Amino acid sequence: MSKLKLLDQARRKVVVLDGGMGTGIQQVPLTLDDFDGLEGCNEILVATRPKVIADIHGAFFAAGCDVVETNTFGANGVVLAEYGIAHRTEELNRIAAKLARDVADEYSTPAQPRFVLGSVGPGTRLPSLGHISFDDLELAFRSQFAGLLAGGVDAVCIETCQDILQTKAAFFAARAAFKSAGFSVPIFLSVTIETTGAMLLGSDVQTALAALRPLKPDVLGMNCGTGPAEMIQHVSHLSRFGGEHIFTMPNAGLPVNRDGMLTYDLTPDEFADIVSRFVTEHGVGIVGGCCGTTPEHLRALANKVESLTPRHRVAYDEPEVSSLYATVALHQDPAPLIVGERANANGSRKFKERLLDEDFDGMLEIAQEQESGGAHVLDVSVAYVDRNEGVDMNRFVPMLAQSVRLPLMIDSTSPEVIEGALKRHG
């Protein structure tokens, strides 16, 4: 398995990913016994009803897809713990990857090799909101990646990301799993932009890319959230700043509630018409579908893009810094870049006094005053004699992450303090 095999294919043609695994599962009459009594745990089906999952993979390959995603969207330790089967994380991911690998090999030909993309969903806890620590979330993801690698995936996809900090935890878990396995595969990172124009926690696509580009993922993209028509504006920004390889996997339109069931109304031809424009107008080289997309949607898309060449694009990499909510260019016009220095225990008497009084709300007010005063970046330093700098920083940074739009400059002479702060701010 060559690290760049899938990406090499993406340099030769428009690569077509598959559609909605959950949509496919919903079309099959299954009982609670099929889920081993774990209602809603689609991931268990790779062990209890492997043929159902294999048939879904096969249907997408038969429709012309180059790549299928494993049935492992929720197969990380946090989600599986909610079903009492966290101990099976690595096992289920290995089985799912091997299952998809076998189907891919069956459909592969010299003219059209087929690939497997390991699906890694966001889980159910958001570290930026304090639901789980960065370290605990990273550990929960590591065994998932270990299983996917053991099962033979060609790449991994950290997808449907709603929290930049969650995305980073998964990314570093992948890197740790690569090191343990002794080899690596390409990493896809995919954020979800809602109808609000931002991720669930409020990060727009510009902010997400500014935060994630420095990680140097192999492929950046977006999936879910909306249909392709609502995604066009965000795809335009992705085209300019997304790096060499970009991808999109929209839903089959916006969901409509009919008799208590969510349905998606875009026809295969309508879906294919819009997504193919991402290729010709924005240079997207990897396309697929998410919720509501069936093999028929992907067949129409594969036929539509078969003869297309992605529009030539130049990926810009402007130096930027970001918070969860805003992006700031390091080159300001007019100059200079203004760094607010008052959230500094050694530079502001008022801030120091509030720190010594344990008045963290008052410290936050000082930070917010600098934001309204026109600072571009906020320097944060809580080092002071006879105080535990790490404890103070770890308490203050999450407050800033949720309440201040300014990017932070973590100011410390201690690498451990800086690392702790970075694990608490996306």
Folded structure, characterized:
It is built from 16 helices and 15 strands. It has helices at 5-12, 21-26, 45-48, 50-62, 77-81, 89-107, 134-151, 164-181, 205-212, 228-241, 268-282, 295-305, 349-356, 360-372, 389-403, 415-422; strands spanning 15-16, 67-69, 115-120, 155-161, 187-191, 219-223, 245-249, 255-258, 261-264, 286-287, 320-322, 327-329, 339-340, 377-380, 408-410. The strands form four sheets. It has an eight-stranded parallel beta sheet with strand order 1-10-7-6-5-4-3-2. Strands 13-14-15 form a three-stranded parallel beta sheet. Strands 8-9 form a two-stranded antiparallel ribbon. Helix 15 links the parallel strand 14 (377-380) and strand 15.
Anisotropy-based shape:
globular
Rounded radius of gyration (Å): 23 Å
Strand order of the largest sheet: 1-10-7-6-5-4-3-2
Q: Could you give a short account of the major beta sheet?
A: 8 strands, parallel
- The tally of strands reads 15
Tell me what portion of residues adopts beta-strand conformation. 5-15%
Number of H- or I-type helical stretches: 16
